[in-house]
Amino acid sequence: MSHHQEPQITVLPPDTEKIAKLWKTAGILLAITVVEFIIAFTLPHGAAKTFLFVILTLVKAGYIVGEFMHLRYEVKVLFWAVLMPMIFIGWMLVAFVYEGTKIIRI
User: Contact 80/67 with Cβ under 8 angstroms?
Assistant: First the structure.
């Protein structure tokens, strides 16, 4: 006769430090998104608006990479190896938009 034992489940108390950190991260990302919405609905279309969106997007991407991919806690070279291509892509997008607006006005 086999004795079947029920698995024991241990419920740990919530880690309030991690929960607070997640809320802080969500708050920072929300604040940046609110700024993006304010820019979207108040500034006229143009290169300055696009430039601000690209900068804020890079800030959000860098923050997300640092927090959720845990690169903030890794070697700085690894963090910059991931972030630098994103910065150059942002610069490329700004350059393309700027050049594209010049072509349209010809």
Answer: no
